[in-house]
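Researcher: Here's my situation. A collaborator sent me these components and asked whether they could plausibly form a single complex. I don't have experimental data yet, so a predicted model of the whole assembly would be a useful starting point for our discussion.
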Amino acid sequence: MLSPVILVPAVLNGLMTGAVYALVALGLTLIYGVLHIINFAHGAMLTAAMFAAFFAYALLGLDPYLAAVLLTPLFFLIGYALQRFVIGPAAHGEDRNFLLVTLGLAVVIENALLYFFHADTRTINVPYAFDVIAIGPAFVAVPRVVALGVVIAVAAALWTIMQWSDTGKAIRAVAKEKLGAELCGVDVAHVYAVTFGLGTACVAVAACLLIPTYYVNPTAGEAFVLIAFTIVVLGGMGSIAGAVIGGLFVGVVESLSSIFLGQSLGQIGIFVMFIVMLLIRPNGLFGARA
Amino acid sequence: MKAYLPIAFAVALLAIVPFFTTSNVVLNFLVMALLIALAGQGWNLLGGYGGQYSFGHAAFFGTAAYATAILQTRYGVNAWLGLLAGVTAGALVGAVIGTLTFRSGLKGAYFSLVTLAFAEVLRIIASVAPITGAGVGTLIRLDLRPEAFQFQSRVPFYWIAVALVGLSLVVVRAIENSRFGAYLVAVRENEDAASALGIDAFAVKLGAMTISAAITAAAGCFYAQYFLFIDAAIAYGPWISIDALLAPIVGGAGTLFGSLLGALVIKTIGETTKFVTGDAPGLDLVIYGLLLVGVVGLAPRGIAGLLATTIGRLFGAAAPPEPKHG
Amino acid sequence: MAEALLIIDNVSKSFGGLLAVDNVSFNVQLGRITALIGPNGAGKTTLFSIISGFLPPDAGRIVFDGMDLTAEPPHQRARRGIARTFQIVQPFAGLTVRENIAVGSHLSRRSRSEALAAAGNVAQSVGLGAQLEVPAVTLTVAGSKRLELARALAIEPRLLLLDEVLAGLNPSEVRDMVPVIRALASSGMTILMTEHVMQAVMSLADRAFVLAEGRVIAHGTPQQVAADRQVVEAYLGQGAAKRMTAEVGHA
């Protein structure tokens, strides 16, 4: 059970899966870090993006990696619009209301997808889906290596934006001190919407990375939601580094516990870790005060 | 005693329905609405009065349903004892989750998240554990005798549902007029200020959670008896967690009749949707989701709040201040 | 000399690298009004939070009526007879004035009707009798301060901690509030108040302790303390005392 031939691929696969988890978590932690709300609609947005990527391939013949170029800005706009015109106004600025509104949105999106596309599971077949490259004793699927690379690139890009661009500075200002930022002339509603858009764009990229090897159905995103939450809590609410490292860590944990406990119980392992983290250290390993 | 008059009136009104109609469709609709009202009243106590928004009330519903079903099918326990056992089991789960989360000081979104996680864990366990029948679920054997809590006609079921809802209304009203109720609201509004007045916030929240779980658990047991079949998705699924919170929010969180009103409204909307668009899966939940967003955005105090404001305006009074739920 | 109801014994507290409270010791005498004053950032609020149980000290003890309370949570201290008001008023929104106060009255009364009735009496004693059925959120600042006081009094404490209870009041409102506090003291209540409004401190306090940069730099009667050179400098800056005496010399 513990031989390297089994462990190394498991760890590597865990890292690749974890990379996508990390990207989803990145979006979530960004939204939390700035808006201080937990976006319960995140998983539903991922599902919607996966359906979009699926249909981009099935109807337009667009390779997922190319579709990403189209879908990322599209979902940024969708996220922006949702926050600016639906979530923000409906919540009246109260945290509890944000919870309910994003929950409501999640229900709407997932069930709309269910209604229009039914519960069937679909997959796409891209020619390179089963290509592998050898890393040590392991053979790793090419799409997953690509995923790891893309995630690291996206995380780096986001970090650069946050550190160096004017928008990034505005976002960080609002995250730290909303009233002060407002008094300096920052349009908080716009910043909130931009952040939400960025978070949603992250899931769009994640969806395109997933679709070559993963299935899509109306509940596909759901599986990622709680995992993303676990990562965000683990890595610290609002920490980009935390989301990436946390994501990789969780991916490896899931992979290893699946070997020892089987698939479903592997999932339980994650939830249990999530609950334990919340109970002991809700600020996470890297996070600012929750 | 005067305080309980509206409850008696509502119960009486509901109880005489079977004398005006024998339509199974109507009775079935009302039974489901009452079931949601009951589950929702449990949520209402913790969420509306206590201010702690649980997103995983399915944990109590499902545990109770499985408890009574397993006790009956595997151990031959009487169904009424099963009801008692189920409510106790649900309350116990509530106490455990409450102790863990409140001891850690979890509040707000974290609390919602953790309750969601607990419900999911239970769902996954139930979907693979042998004792629950795993993926196949648990079927309670048909045994149409009152002693076995099963009835040929829907009417006795309906009356039991009315009685349970009535009981939950009495419990909540009693709490409203008690020290515990005052403490619960104080903790909701401002935990620090409440502590400074001698209130043990942890004990109050834990008590509310346990009672809330017991009420929702009763709904779970009733479900098991009425439908005679449960599986992991039914017992612990998001549908009941969502219905249990939607009903009181639509009807008016933190009000006595909020859950009952809300349940009737959402069930009506759900059935109308099904009627108009056919039994397409998902559409009714889409409507529920929109309803949730709409109510929070436009009428945060629910129907009860709208009624209060409208009646107030009719009589020229200023609208009462919006309770802070921050 | 009156006995000490509350003893602050060598209490210290740091936040990160900042030493907010530095080995502070003082007593609050039974039946007297003791004032804790000092410039902003001196550590008064931190000390208050420690005394009322909302913040644990890094070192030292809080002794109340001979009992070491240092490890007890706020609600426990309240049950022992320590009540506090909050600097930023925090009424229970959605409840009336009477219902707000009743939350406190419930500490020694199970019955809802008894608590509501008792709340009425407490409200009268602080001058809120006319506003009992009004929603608490609609009170003015002055009214809210009285509500804070009433709620604290409702638990029938032996020690009352007033956290800048006069902050935010205009001079005439202060003039109205001072007699209320004095009446409490006359009826035997022990009071520890932090305050910036100097006229109130001068007219109410029997003894004052001055806190600056986390340390007690002076104590005595309000008059003694006001004349203390170190106190003047703590408030007005170094050299101020000398400048003031020089000016007086010239006049």
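Model: Some features of this prediction you could bring to your collaborator: Chain C has a mean pLDDT of 88. Chain C has ten helices and ten strands.
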